[in-house]
Please model this.
Amino acid sequence: MKKLILKGGDFRTELENITPMKQQKKKFHRLLPRPFLVLAPMYEVTDSAFRQIIAARGAPDIFVTEFVSADALVHPEASRKVAHLLAFDERERFRILPDGSREREAFLQAQIFGADPATMAAAAGICAEWGFDGVDINMGCPEKNIQKQGSGAALIRTPERALEILRAVREGAGGLTVSVKTRIGYLREEIDTWLPAILEGKPDILTVHLRTKKEMSLVPAHWEWAERIVAWRDRVSPRTLLVGNGDIVDLEDAEEKIARYGLDGAMLGRAVFGNPWLFARRKKEPSWEEKVRTLSEHTALFARLYTGVRNFAVMKRHFAAYLRGFAGAKKLRGDLMTVSSAPEAIAKLEEFLRKSLVEEEE
Ligand SMILES: Cc1cc2nc3c(=O)[nH]c(=O)nc-3n(C[C@H](O)[C@H](O)[C@H](O)COP(=O)(O)O)c2cc1C
Model:
């Protein structure tokens, strides 16, 4: 287990398998393939359990953790409550070969949010010490209580502060890759002001979700403006890798958009709901049996990592997403919505498997 030393003391997480074996010392973004694919950070979705399930089937080039508050991370008491958000397992980024050696599969970034440069720098230092390959700064979250503190999408309105934070995080991260994830504007599209402003800070990677803060996720992403963003990158910070995000449905769609707009990479979010095979480049759709078995494995892993740490209700979004498109899925989904523990859920999934396999044989 990893012992994390914090200013006000130290603590151990209850989580297993957190010991980083090999930290990427250099900036990892220079080692990325082109184009490259990123799994979007999604709070209460892309936790370590789901990332491990995905990695075992086909990893993206970069995983990003759920966002974590820098204020909480540097606080001796509060950090205990958020440490689970930074839990990861080495199997997310390495394939473990039969002889025990490791082969790099993906890079792992921690995503932090905050409004105070010094706190953000300290939080970035903790992420580096924790063993992450890089740090991503959230400058796009539209949630009110995140913005209230001046962080997330609120930084779009305070570009000077955003730049200060970027510089501070770079300092705090001690040479690791530092990226920014943002949107195209606050109340309206501000591509010609906000994007050159943040590019002045020369982030190693800039991910742009092609919607404004106001648009949340309510309108289609504005891919029609992607080329304008690429032009700003070329002019202001040609070495920054540019990643497009918003409504990408699969790898084919991602690769088509990357090629069409001249991006370096693409980030996929909701397309992974119920589909940990998203990055696997499989020819065949997963069968109903594979879906149910995978969900059962996912539930067991969630319970092993997070029992007593995270609310089991987090799994319900996954139940709803995996269990679609096969006979009996709707009823099974309904049954699972009423359970309140992993063993109960797994029992229902196993029972469904048993019954359906018997029916198939008959
Ligand atoms: C449930 C959920 C949680 C999210 N949590 C985060 C987060 O923690 N940090 C972040 O930068 N974006 C977060 N996002 C936004 C996604 O990373 C992504 O930008 C957005 O979903 C658009 O991409 P998509 O259309 O491929 O899903 C979240 C989105 C969803 C749906």
Q: What stands out?
A: The longest helix spans residues 342-361. The mean pLDDT is 92. The pocket of flavin mononucleotide is lined by residues 40-43, 45, 66-67, 111, 138, 140-141, 181, 209, 245-248, 268-271 (CB under 6 Å).
